């Protein structure tokens, strides 16, 4: 699991992405626009480029899994993992108590 912290708020990210998309026509390439704007926000060009790509995916302009669906999938996978662990604990407890019942002396 990643231990990175989000140093930039969603509003800052959105603003940076908007600036890249708006200034693309003023630069010879997208990368030139990204590096120009990344310095103003104090992030790396690669980070800003990933924000731009993610924004395009979320808007349907680029193929990929939107953030909302990715977050939902991650939550469902976590829940599934927890339920499997709970089932395993219950299965072992059931087997333990069933064995204990068999080992108990009979009362007559």
TrEMBL record:
The keyword Coiled coil applies. Keywords: Coiled coil. Signal peptide: none annotated. Residues 69-96 form a coiled coil. GO terms for molecular function: DNA binding; transposase activity. One of its GO terms (biological process) is DNA transposition. This is Transposase. It comes from Croceicoccus pelagius.
